[in-house]
Design the sequence.
């Protein structure tokens, strides 16, 4: 009985911990992209977009103006 309860609790704690670790990692990557235009350009190219310098500056400005957490 205790084995099942401990297993479920461990699974829940691991899932929650993994979620928060993933969010932290994603935020750090987005912060890096704001400061590194080549990284942003590479990501856009992987998504099928070719961005010129004006579009790149506009994208960086939009990322800087966005509040943490994505909420306004």
Sequence:
């Amino acid at each position: 009985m205790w084995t099942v309860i401990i297993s479920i609790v461990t699974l829940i704690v691991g899932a929650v911990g993994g979620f928060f670790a993933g969010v932290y990692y994603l935020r750090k990557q987005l912060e890096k992209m704001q400061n590194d235009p080549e990284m942003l350009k590479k990501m856009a190219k992987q998504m099928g977009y070719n961005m010129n310098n004006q579009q790149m500056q506009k994208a960086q400005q939009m990322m800087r103006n966005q509040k943490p957490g994505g909420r306004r």
